[in-house]
Amino acid sequence: MAIVLDAMGGDHAPEEVVQGAKAAAQNGLKIYLTGPEETLREFVGETSGIEIIDAPEIVSMSESPAEVLRKKPSSSIVVGVKLAKEKGIPFVSAGNTGACMASALFGFGRLPGIKRPPIASLFPQITGGSTTILDVGANVDCSSQNLLHFAIMGCAYSKAVCGVENPSVGLLSNGEEDEKGNALVLETHQLLKESGLNFIGNVEGFDVLSGKCDVIVCDGFVGNILLKTTEGVATALLKLAKSALPESGDLSPDLMQVLGKLNKYNPKSQEHTGAPLLGIQGICYIVHGSANAKTIEGACLNAQKVGQSGLVELIASELQERKGK
User: Fold this and answer.
1) Hey, what domains does the chain have and what are their CATH numbers?
2) What backbone phi and psi angles, to 5 degrees, belong to 85?
3) β-strand partners of 60
4) CA distances from 20 to 57, 185, 245 (A)
5) Does residue 186 sit in helix, strand or coil?
6) CB atoms inside a 10 Å sphere around CB 91
7) How open is the CA angle 127-201-318, to the nearest 5 degrees?
8) What is the DSSP letter of 93?
9) How far apart are alpha carbons 321 and 325 in whole angstroms?
10) 212-250: per-residue pLDDT in tens?
């Protein structure tokens, strides 16, 4: 399979992006790299498996998404989404998130019935699996109907990408009791109870990594804070663990095992390098702006996996099935 990669997205573009693309290409992945051709040629060289698509305009992290669509049609983001749509393959970018989302919504289009496409992120469970959490930042203001759609799409993602046959769904709240939560949570709780999904009720913050359920639903304001807080805690724990290592560098097998388990929660590990925007008629895989080459490599491979999973078709089918009930 192939993907389209925005070469100019992120804090360390294009050097780190191209290095990540080269590593992914060595795994047999075909990569269309969008950005200024003359600049990219210098970094790509004669690497096989990478094709440069000229996109001379650059999008900064601070630019308005609407302005990008109107004034920069030749940017690496807009050109990349258009090419991904034409070829039916994923688009990957560590660039301006708003511009990526706007371009994806305009270029791919929404799935029927979806008004608020969410970003879905996989959180590692202490039991060994992954929990799909959405929305983690695309929509700060949501309705209960939006959150119901998030649950349906999250279940499809858990099935297609994580291999969970009948995903359990939890609603993030400030208490597990049915009567806990703000007005949005209370209204959504009732919709989820009547949805026919495998809804287990409200879950709390400490359930995020516990493995209590396969999908957790919340609005993008709460989800983004949750994502960054969890990443911050994980990063702090890893730094504390490394600072306590013996100066000799001699590590016992037990300590090596502990560090290996802790690294599962490293936000920069390959399985946690980005997240797809769901509810669109294509795959837009959004990556951390601070992405390095290893992060980009992981994002490319993860986007390939999502693209091959049949996720878009499954979401469309699940939405249609729920609509008919």
Assistant:
1) 1-111+279-309 (3.40.718.10), 115-271 (3.40.718.10)
2) -65, -45
3) none
4) 21, 40, 30
5) helix
6) 31
7) 85
8) E
9) 7
10) 999 999 999 999 999 989 888 888 887 887 777 776 667
